[in-house]
Design a protein that fits this description.
With about 130 residues, the chain is mainly β. The chain is built from no helices and 11 strands. The strands form 2 sheets. Strands 2, 4, 5, 6, 9, 10 and 11 form a 7-stranded mixed beta sheet that branches. The radius of gyration is 13 Å and the shape is globular.
Length: about 130
């Protein structure tokens, strides 16, 4: 069992930066692949970025690849999402997720993830 808690969301102006954190509990957390997704009301949950259990393999959505970076610190049980050059269309609730099956290969679809955080709101003003 893994519990995930996101933090770091908030209100930022267009062009600004935010770093989201996701802290996990559970003694086997470091063996899980991790991902970030986002969702706006009325739309499906969208893949943002993912990272393998070791941190050696990462992937991001094409539209965010140049601006968003995922990283993890297994010693701190934390995965990060650094978001730069934010745009109003990045406004969403951002969710952290853990996958037992996607430990080495990146998972880009919500159904590949087993545990989810409660989400953190990111609002980008124009």
């Amino acid at each position: 069992q893994v519990q995930l808690v996101e933090s770091g969301g908030g209100l930022v102006q267009a062009g600004g930066s935010l770093r989201l954190s996701c802290t996990a509990s559970g003694r086997t957390w470091s063996s899980y692949g991790m991902g970030w997704f986002r969702q706006v009301p009325g739309k499906e949950r969208e893949f943002v970025a993912a990272i393998s259990s070791s941190g050696g393999n990462t992937g991001s959505a094409d539209s965010m690849k140049a601006r968003f970076t995922i990283a993890r610190d297994n010693a701190k049980n934390t995965v990060y999402l650094q978001m730069n050059s934010l745009k109003p269309e990045d406004t969403a609730v951002y969710y952290c997720a853990a996958s037992e099956s996607r430990r080495t290969r990146i998972g880009t679809r919500p159904h590949e993830y087993d545990y989810w955080g409660q989400g953190t709101q990111v609002t980008v003003s124009s």
